[in-house]
Amino acid sequence: MDMRWKPSVTVAAVIERDGRFLLVEEETSEGLRLNNPAGHLDPGESPAEGCAREALEETAHVFEPTELVGVYLSRMQRASTGEDFTYLRFAFCGRLGERQAGRALDTGIVRTLWMTPEEVRASRDRHRSPLVVRCMEDYLAGRRHPLSFVTTDPSVYAA
Length: 159
Description:
It is a single chain. The chain is α+β, with helices and mostly antiparallel strands. The protein has one domain (8-151): Nucleoside Triphosphate Pyrophosphohydrolase. The protein is 18% helix and 42% strand. It has helices at 47-59, 117-122, 131-140, and strands at residues 8-13, 16-17, 20-28, 31-35, 38-40, 61-77, 84-99, 109-115, 145-146. β2 and β3 (20-28) form a beta hairpin. It is globular and about 40 Å long. The chain starts with 7 loop residues before the first strand and ends in a 13-residue tail after the last strand.
């Protein structure tokens, strides 16, 4: 029986403030890893809405996506199990709001960190994905696209 290939759609926030980038340290099956605030797109939301939700869940900060940094396709194999995954990532930059007092970080998120580009580059062996650096480098190179670059059909919101 043939199985249809379906990459996992993820959303990521590339958040920079004063020359530092906000990353999360999270527990994974491969140990503690660094990542952009990111996660899977949920049913009934646009990629920008999913990015705002994931950033809030993982950092306790309100995040408003204002531009698309890029769309990325990547593949990885989990060393512990050999499982093969393909991800389609939508990465956004935008405005970071205040931290919501008393809000807990999402399950598996150990802490948030502000890192310089040099620190992010130097910690590649701890990244959850090679896209952590790639998204930062694209952001630093000025790659930006309007949010209208990604269209969400109204059918996504239908009951």
